[in-house]
Specification:
With 378 residues, this protein is an alpha/beta fold. It has 17 helices and 11 strands. The strands form 3 sheets. The chain has a 5-stranded parallel sheet. It has a 4-stranded parallel sheet with strand order 9-8-10-11, with helices on both faces. The N and C termini lie far apart (56 Å).
């Protein structure tokens, strides 16, 4: 399929590009694959058409946003990738099978993982208290948006339960959308399915009319990013759970009575850090845990390296899967002397933990969500 290069360049303001190469130079994926966003932009500037059929490197992008942050001319190379993926998705050819399955599941079952819709709130089993259904109650202080992976994945469910337990103990009036909660669509948009994403936004706004809430708290940075930046006016602010934990700590609603004697470092999720500039709150939570010794990785905060889980890469294998960026992060954490590599994102937890297992380093380091460390301290 050929895309009109002139129209594409106009739509994405590519005429501003000065071909400095900072986008590709900063791209962590370009170091290990043939993905070169500068060359793709150059093609749009000098050719009559862009041939997207067979452009498999588009699926290497994790949408970490480094290229866009580094651009001195305010061009958005990450959006260029999404736009070109959109043509592939629209054509229906060249979409990686697992990406296609995730898209189909999101639209038919409300989640990207292929699980039954009616099982979305099974994570609540064994909590020892009832989680309110906001649609039935009609109002709540906190709308707890769980998300697909935190609701269904057995490795992430303990994180979700721990957060719910903390809110319950703190006396927070909270509830969820139960089995009516749908995929936030953050990755759906980045895969290139823009029309499908817009339908998700419209559906949520219709559901929003059925309840009142003062704020929303998400488990996932990806859900946080979608609701905060791409859903328009929701009528309430959106918080990532690490921001919410800081508030509970400052008000005394969350206190720690146990020590966690571990040497810990932290991996910044792209969709929390680079996309939303949330760097301090996760570290503030970690530093508040008694007994915990915290030290940053060399490449942290704005310089953090992507784990390769975002932008649909949880389902697209990419053109080089031998050495993932997650492997590099694990090695960096071990070199720092960390016993725990802490995260605050389900995708990061899964990719980094898989890297630990793949490298056979289970006895040297453990990957844990911040919420799991909080649970150990309460």
């Amino acid at each position: 399929m050929k895309v009109n290069a002139h129209d594409f360049a106009q739509e994405y303001t590519l005429l501003e590009c000065i071909q400095c190469g900072r986008c590709t130079g900063g791209c962590p994926v370009s170091l290990k694959t043939a993905l070169n966003i500068r060359s793709i932009i150059y093609q749009a500037l000098v050719d009559d058409a862009i041939e997207v059929n067979g452009m498999d490197v588009l699926w290497d992008c994790t949408n970490c946003l480094t290229c866009t942050i580094r651009c001195p001319k305010d061009v958005h190379p990450s959006d260029v990738i999404i736009g070109l993926r959109g043509y592939i998705v629209g054509e229906g050819k060249g979409v990686p099978p697992r990406v296609r399955d995730a898209l189909m599941s999101a639209f038919t079952r409300g989640n990207t993982l292929g699980f039954a819709t009616e099982d979305r709130d099974k994570w609540t089993e064994g909590l020892g208290f009832e989680v309110k259904n906001v649609l039935e109650a009609g109002e709540t202080d906190v709308l707890f948006y769980v998300g697909c992976t935190p609701a269904y994945d057995p490795r992430i469910q303990p994180v979700t339960r721990a957060l719910a337990t903390i809110m319950h103990r703190a006396g927070i009036d909270f509830g969820t959308l139960g089995v009516d909660e749908m995929c936030c669509g953050n990755e759906i948009r980045r895969i290139g399915e823009s029309e499908g994403f817009e339908s998700m936004v419209e559906e949520f706004h219709e559901m929003r009319k059925e309840f009142q809430a003062r704020r929303m708290v998400t488990v996932s940075p990806h859900c946080y990013n979608a609701f905060r930046n791409e859903y328009g006016d929701l009528g309430f602010p959106v918080y990532h759970y690490t921001q919410f934990l800081v508030e509970l700590l400052e008000t005394g609603q969350l206190t720690f009575d146990k020590e966690v004697r571990k040497r810990v470092t932290y991996h910044d999720p792209c969709f929390l850090g680079k996309h939303n500039n949330i760097y301090d709150e996760p570290r503030q939570v970690l530093r508040s845990i008694p007994g915990l010794e915290f030290e940053d990785l060399d490449r942290s905060r704005e310089r953090s390296v992507c784990c390769e889980g975002g932008g649909g890469r949880m389902w697209a294998e990419g053109t080089n899967i031998e050495e993932r960026l997650a492997h590099q992060r694990v090695r960096d954490a071990i070199a720092l002397g960390a016993e725990v590599l802490a995260v605050s994102c389900a995708f990061c937890l899964l990719t980094l933990e898989d890297a630990v297992k793949t490298l056979g380093l289970d006895e040297q380091i453990q990957v844990m969500d911040i919420m799991e460390l909080v649970a150990q301290a309460t």
